[in-house]
Write the structure tokens for this entry.
Amino acid sequence: MKKSFYITTTIPYVNADPHIGFALELVQADVLARYQRLNGREVFSSTGTDEYGQKIWEASQKEDKDVQDYVDHYAQKFLDLKDVLNLSLDNFIRTTSPEHIVAAQEFWILCDKKGDIYKKAYRGLYCVGCEKFITEKDLMEGLCSLHPTKIPEMVEEENYFFRLSKYKEQLLTYLNKKESILPEWRRAEALEYVKDGMEDFSISRSKKRLSWGVPIPGDDTQVMYVWFGAFVNYISTLGWPGRTSP
């Protein structure tokens, strides 16, 4: 019996029109999906859009648009690529969809029950471009090395954190498998990060500073950090957790 095959692309931010690099990724994923179908395997192919976060909210304000109208406009442009590129997609997931919000909240609840989430006050430099807190080692002449046109702001607030450090040994065991990540240099990069740079990270933002995010179950003062809620799309697109309300 042949195993099923699941393939997904990254999901891009909807703060600009689609570009040729993402079109290439879509076509490459579609080629693999079609090849596996020809081999008789059951295939599920997915893509979608990442629609929350500070960058999205700020972009909508610059265009003087309601943020939901803004993401609807750009998400449609990415969805249109299905017909433009003749893609054989099985699903297109949006992180603002009710199905995804339910999944992100369920994931939060499961992590919380497992003791992987805690709350603490934090003060540090925040880069809007990266959508995360950064440290001195991320700076180049006082600016973010990845976004040198953006000046990091000092932010102090109480956030929820995920106990990523708890999973260090499990991650090292997984990453030591040569087939875990391709190409090899990316696997080496991930190994180095886990060994030397991995820390618990902030997974929420105060609504006083940013309201555009997935609501956190049981706390209406915070929303989910975009990179915590968004990655759940890779299972929410499959229908997880199989219900339509939190």
Summary: Residues 226 and 236 are 15 Å apart (CA to CA). The chain is about 35% helix and 25% strand. The radius of gyration is 19 Å.
